[in-house]
Design brief:
- The protein is an alpha+beta fold.
- The protein has a single domain, classed as Alpha-Beta Complex (Nucleoside Triphosphate Pyrophosphohydrolase), CATH 3.90.79.
- The chain contains three helices and eight strands.
- Strands 1, 2, 3, 4, 5, 6, 7 and 8 form an eight-stranded mixed β-sheet that branches.
- Helix 2 packs antiparallel against helix 3.
């Protein structure tokens, strides 16, 4: 892939959750190469909003459907493909999890309680986003519908 190194590449990430017995559980997926546990994310394509990208990546990478709740949870940057990437993260309330999805053959998908998810997430930035998501869910900042 070739990118203009003078501009960070925009990505969007979904922090997918649903309520189980009144408590939030989060969906994590594995990366395709190293099998690390992460949240779904991808490059924001031209003409697409970050929110649309977050929902699309959750659908393609994890077979999840739902809606974004509230505004951006936070953002982080990292380097890949010889470029800097800037990731905007969004809380996603999952309404349906498909049994078959586009990347089911190359990724695992699992639901974790917050404390389990925190242990699985390797990057501190992802653990921090999990904490912000929990705060939003429990604090009533998210759309209650």
């Amino acid at each position: 892939m070739h990118y203009d190194a003078s501009h960070p590449i925009s990505q969007a990430c979904a922090i997918p959750y649903r309520l189980q017995n009144g408590h939030p559980v989060f969906c994590l997926i594995t990366t395709t190469k190293k099998g690390k546990w992460v949240f779904p994310k991808g490059v924001v394509d031209p003409g697409e909003t970050p929110e649309e990208t977050a929902l699309k990546e959750a659908r393609e990478e994890a077979g999840l459907r739902g809606r974004i709740e509230g505004g951006e949870l936070g953002e982080y940057t990292y380097s890949k493909w010889g470029a800097d990437l800037s990731v905007s993260a969004y809380l996603m309330r999952v309404t349906r999890a498909e049994n078959r999805w586009q990347e089911a053959g190359v990724r695992e998908r699992r639901w974790y309680r917050p404390e389990e998810a925190r242990k699985k997430l390797g990057r501190k930035t992802l653990r921090d986003l999990l904490d912000v998501a929990l705060e939003r869910i429990s604090g009533g900042d998210a759309d209650p519908r």
